[in-house]
Amino acid sequence: MTDLEAELRKAVRGDVGFDVTSRALVTMDASNYRRVPLGVVAPRDADDVSAALEVCRAHGVPVVARGGGTSIAGQATGTGVVLDFTRHMNRLVALDPETRTAVVQPGLVLDRLQEAAAPHGLRFGPDPSTHSRCTLGGMIGNNSCGSHSVAWGTTADSVRELRVVTARGGRLRLGQGWAGAPAGLRELVEGDLALLRTGFPELPRRISGYALDALLPERGVDVARSFCGSEGTLGVLTEAVVRLVEAPRTRALAVLGYGDESGAAEAAAGLLPAGPARAGGTGGGSGPLTVEGMAADLVPAGAAAALPRGGAWLFVETGGETESEAHARARAVVRSAPDAVDSLIVTDPAGQRALWRVREDASGTATRMPDGSEAWPGWEDCAVPPARLGAYLRDFRALLAAHGLRGTPYGHFGDGCIHVRIDFDLLTEPGIGRFRRFSEELAGLVVAHGGSLSGEHGDGQARAELLPRMYGEPMVALFGRAKGVWDPDDLLNPGMLVRPAPLDTGLRFSVLPREPVPVAFGYPSDGGDFSAAVRRCVGVAKCRTTTAGGPEVMCPSFRATGEEAHSTRGRARLLHEMLAGEVVTGGWRSPEVRDALDLCLSCKGCRSDCPVGVDMATYKAEFLHHHYAGRRRPAAHYAMGRLPRWLRWASRTRATGLVNALARVRPLAWAVKRAGGIAGERAIPRLAGETFSRWWRRRPARAGGGGEPVVLWPDTFTEHFSPSVGRAAVRVLEAAGLRVVLPPTLRMRGRPVGDGRTRSAAALLTARRDRVCCGLTYVSTGQLDHARAVLRRTLDLMEPVLETAAPVVVLEPSCAAALRTDLPGLLPDDPRARRLAGRVLTFAETLERHAPDWVPPRLDRPVAGQTHCHQHAVLGDAPDRRLREAAGLTGELSGGCCGLAGDFGFEEGHFEVSVACAEEQLLPAVRSAPPDAAVLADGFSCRTQLEQLAGVRGRHLAEVLADGLGNNGAVDGPADGPAGERG
Fold it and tell me: What is the DSSP string of 246-284?
């Protein structure tokens, strides 16, 4: 391996990685399989590809081409050298609107092509649900399709010309005709014309095997088309000329409800035009652009309300030159579906996107059964003639029942292609045996219905072993001879399609521990098993989306660096390999896992945006807890991880003024930051001159506070940095008729702590932990023993509150999220933890639930800023939206993450990534806002980032509403933080 690595480094100009991290990141794709490579090469151009192939051929080392790594059947993994095209060979080379063609490199993400084509009214026809991260090379390798294939066909329908490097270094230009084909291919085809003319089923989604029938003379000897779907086994793609189609100017979406999936499946074929209008990807004419189906089992509870009545639905999209034309075509679809129990037509683009997200996320949500148990691919995309889909689904359901298995089909009903994840037991020998028996019987069922084992994702290892059942031995032997023509040394992706590895070997779960590993968090959704939590990542790679869209957060560090190791999937892969102990051998002490997690912002975006609910923030805290157990921690863990302790000390000793003064002395500030592991570029935030709690104690009783009691949580950030937020919240809550109280505090000698009386040093030491705390800073730095101790003391203090029905109002979103999720996760056996977590409400939730008749002041101002990432991921922001609307605060807040994220952006070495995250959505949104916009930022981190990077004062929603209550915006105390709010 050392010689191989050295020769590759000498031969290629691109990146060569034989280190632990590089190898661990590509052991898996989105399938059930795992292969450990020797190394990874990221070529810069076709010359690099040729050079890498030459070195590998000399060493007898196989080569696997990899794009986004979202393949379902195992074809993007290998034991030799993996060629990663996403790093350098990812350009759109040219786009010609006149000829409607584009020249692309294999690592180009599909959405980048769509964005470039859109201004010209064009698009690439096929669009898999992974369009935001799948690559054109991977789509060509798998002959991908997507939801619009009923209009525009498969990827093969959209390919005009391919540039390919063969295993022996040949440079081929493939198109129509034999001129660019490898020597011997024409003779092979002309020697078996009869078999090629009779051996392929006719259906729109036949992806399995090699498309040798495209080489028939009556089909134009289309060598480029024949290469599509070969899964990297024939040659390595370096460039492609693809055809674009005219995109409809407007679209409408008709959603049809049916009693069950079989009813939807039987109706689907009748919604499509018959004959050649469906074939060839000619643009769809006036017919539907999509006919997608899914059942209720895959629809999240919150999304079901947006759908018409039914137990299953068809999503039928129509296009037109005008909105009325698209709507008329959608109405025609509804009229042609008399068996539908209900229907809905959506013309609003935002509404359509929301509904399409429900369908696209099914690839992830299907990995969990309704009861939370795991489900896996393997028979993810069989296809049958559309007219037989209803009968096939009934037989499929019966076969599942016969084997005691469960799965929820969904997918491309208009093309007869069904996706499904099944609750196979792939962890035990009996379960794997049942997986094999079921696979063999299902292959027979698909063939009996005239179908294809693969209708979209390719055969890979999952189905290639069963191709003789579909094609017969003579055709499979012909596939082997074709592979020999292209790749006589079997160098390219061996074990796929031809001479495949058995479908029940190399399963990725076999290397994981059989017993749960000891952990700090409870992982209730995963049975307390950290391995099961890590298994959640199935590789669909939504976290690798390179541009943020809408309100989504995940994954800000990947978008900042573009590195797989800094994606949620990459980190999950490293944790998987850490548990396996084969590639990553350091266990919890692994420096590779530590370094990958270092740039995780703990934004929790993956908790909501990942279709399978991977919670990398929790996994990071868990890892840091074990990694530093009994060892010295980074300085930032002591300085910022234990921030509540330092702030309470400064407050009790009345040292805040001194601390602020010293922080303004540059040499001293530099020394403090260096000692505390704080980035030198950061300014140290000013402490408030008076804490929120001290203001509360000296505040006279208010006449408006006689209503229903609510407990206002004095979080660390409101208490010591932004007491104006707390004061404003009190004012608004009391204006709404609520009675505000603070949580109880520890009492000493019969008097509450902080009553202003003289106390001894010993008493101060005893009283330093007297206040409630969510433990957030301890959790985010992995100091989980400290966090549990803090949370237990908090529960002790909150017992009197928990005996009442009073809600707990938490103003800081990150603290509210910690109480809702980390508290019960760290103390799963303490019933008080669940009770407190269930009481936590945001500011807007409190007003909506406990003061529903209160009318907020009418402000009539636009807003700018950002929804806090923890609010997006854990708490939800619908009540905030409704409250802003009632107050006349118009406009949308941006998504993404502010980049400061608690201690992350302050920690040394994180400044550049922190700024990059802020520059993605937050700062541009604020800069482009109207001059009179109210800059909303409920989180202290978000406000600090705005102040330090943009010189703008962000404000909590409570502060903005308090301004509208009169008295010139005064909120019973001095303002804190920087002056000069925008507008």
Answer: EPPSEEEEEEEEESSHHHHHHHHGGGS--GGGGSTT---
Half-sphere exposure in the Cβ direction for 721 (13 Å, CA): 20
8 A C-beta contact, residue 60 and residue 50: no
Residue 516 lies in a domain: yes
Strand locations in 707-822 (E): 709-713, 739-741, 747-748, 751-752, 808-810
Q: How far is CA 547 from the centre of its chain?
A: 12
pLDDT of residue 273: 76
Statement to judge: residues 200 and 77 lie in one domain? no
550, 645: one domain: no
Asked if the structure places residue 61 within a domain, the reply is: yes
> pLDDT tens for residues 875-901?
999 999 999 999 999 999 988 899 999
Q: Which of 627, 648, 681 is the last residue of a domain?
A: 627
Residue 393 and residue 414: Cα distance in Å, rounded? 14
Question: pLDDT-derived band of residue 473, with 50, 70 and 90 as boundaries?
Answer: very high
Tell me the pLDDT band of 770, cut-offs 50, 70 and 90: low
End-to-end CA distance of the chain: 63
Q: What is the DSSP string of 568-596?
A: HHHHHHHHHHHHH-SSS-SGGG-HHHHHH
Q: Are residues 736 and 839 in the same domain?
A: yes
| Mean per-residue pLDDT, 336-350 | 93
pLDDT at 203 over 80: yes
Is 504 within the bounds of a domain? no
Show which of 226, 245, 264 is a domain's final residue: 245
**Dmax over Cα atoms in the chain, in whole Å?**
102
**pTM score, whole prediction:** 0.92
* pLDDT of 916 over the 60 cut: yes
Query: What is the C-alpha to C-alpha distance for residues 733 and 530, in angstroms, rounded to an integer?
Result: 41
Task: For the beta carbon of residue 760, count every other beta carbon within 10 angstroms.
Answer: 8
CA distances from 28 to 62, 66, 72, 887, 954 (A): 16, 11, 10, 50, 43
Any alpha helices (H) in 840-909, and if so which ranges?
843-850, 869-870, 878-886
Partners of 290 in the beta sheet?
A: 317
The residue among 951, 884, 960 whose CA lies nearest residue 923 is 951
Q: What's residue 359's pLDDT?
A: 76
- Name the 3-class secondary structure at 681: coil
Q: Are residue 749 and residue 769 in the same domain, yes or no? A: yes
Number of domains, the chain: 7
Whether residue 225 contacts residue 154, with contact meaning beta carbons closer than 8 Å, is answered with no
Q: Which of 921, 397, 911 is nearest to 682 (CA)?
A: 911
The parent domain of residue 783 ranges over: 639-848
pLDDT at 759: 36
* Domain identity same for 669 and 807: yes
- Residue 70 shares a structural domain with residue 194: no
CATH number at residue 427: 3.30.70.2740
Residue 517 in domain: yes
Same domain, 518 and 481: no
Q: Are residues 709 and 796 in the same domain?
A: yes
- Write the CATH number for 82: 3.30.43.10
- Phi/psi for 919 (5° steps) reads -75, -10
